[in-house]
Amino acid sequence: MYVVVVGGGKVGYHLAKALLQDGHEVLIIERDRARCEHLEAELGDIVLRGDGSEVVTMEKAGFNRADMVVAVTGDDEDNLVICQVAKAHFRVPRTVALVNDPKNAEIFHRLGIDHTVNATDAILAQIEQELPVHALIHLLSMRGGGLEMVEVRIPPQAAVVGRKLREVLLPQQSIVVLIIEEDGSPKAPDPDTVLRPGDKVMLVTRSENEEALREVFTRPPGYTSPYGPLTISR
Amino acid sequence: MKVVIMGCGRVGAELATQLDHQGHQVTVIDINPEAFRRLPMDFKGRKVVGNGVDQDVLRRVGVGEAQAFVAVTQGDNRNIMAAQMAKFIFGVPKALCRIYDPARQEIYRSLGLETVSPTRITVEMLLKALASEAEDKGGGGSCT
Hints:
The complex is a heterodimer.
Chain A: E1 2-6, H1 10-21, E2 25-30, H2 33-43, E3 47-49, H3 55-60, E4 68-71, H4 76-88, E5 94-99, H5 104-110, E6 115-118, H6 119-130, E7 136-141, E8 147-153, E9 175-180, E10 186-187, E11 200-206, H7 210-218
Parallel strand pairs in A: 1-2, 1-4, 2-3, 4-5, 5-6
Antiparallel strand pairs in A: 7-8, 8-11, 9-10, 9-11
Chain B: E1 2-6, H1 10-21, E2 25-30, E3 46-49, H2 55-60, E4 68-71, H3 76-89, E5 94-98, H4 102-110, E6 114-116, H5 118-135
Parallel strand pairs in B: 1-2, 1-4, 2-3, 4-5, 5-6
């Protein structure tokens, strides 16, 4: 795959390095001369010096044959324009933009960017993973329809422990897609799958159901919830 | 009409001044408070220090209620992003942006953005002036 990385900062450098190791063809576009020299010394002759949001630079970089363009500069407006022009003018099949201001992720999606990466949210998710109080973790926001992929870890004292999946009453439009057991092995869920403490349950759900979902999987026995009953009575 | 102008450089300040004199309700945004010195003493519009590609800033100045938005900062990409936010996120009926780079201007015009490229306009005027000069066989030096 031919991948053009625009922005040769830390993110661009490590990304290019990883892609090269995976056997991809990579080109980095970077504006700063000293940075270019450093990148070339480290990664070899895969650096083009220039303004990656200039159409002339994009032509030189071979955007028209790129399978993917990844814009990881420090300026959101540049990342947006690079991806939009790549898509609209050069017909690049996939574009990924780094979002420096997390608020811009939603705007980028609405303005046609395929995929955004957001360092702040990634770190937040990591922190959430470290904190047992945050039983529900966002994995992915899906475009359109307000759907999210979330992960819930089942605490040892939860009322759902020992229940079969078919007995658990989920909020509307929520589907369990995968269960990862405590030892890390994945399990395709079926209605007879028994929930165990430490299981990570991955679900697709609507954003507004998050709180209800968290309750379903983490609430202790005997707790009356505003979200209604926990299980379908047997 | 309510107009929000992003960028208080020469063009932004002059545009704001003229619209203000015509009696429009003008808000000027610039990241640098120093830039507002370009506005005349009797400017009646609102001056807001902030980054126009920040949706919170746009919301705070009430861009959603504006009839027009004009992005004239020095950065092409900043203008492009702000104008798209005004038009497609906040639903401003008329969103204009200046794009120096003619290639990018062409692309964004085809994507439905109302754009002005000073580079293209200046080149066209210069070419016209040169052509009329040639007709005069190098004499006179009359410029329109």
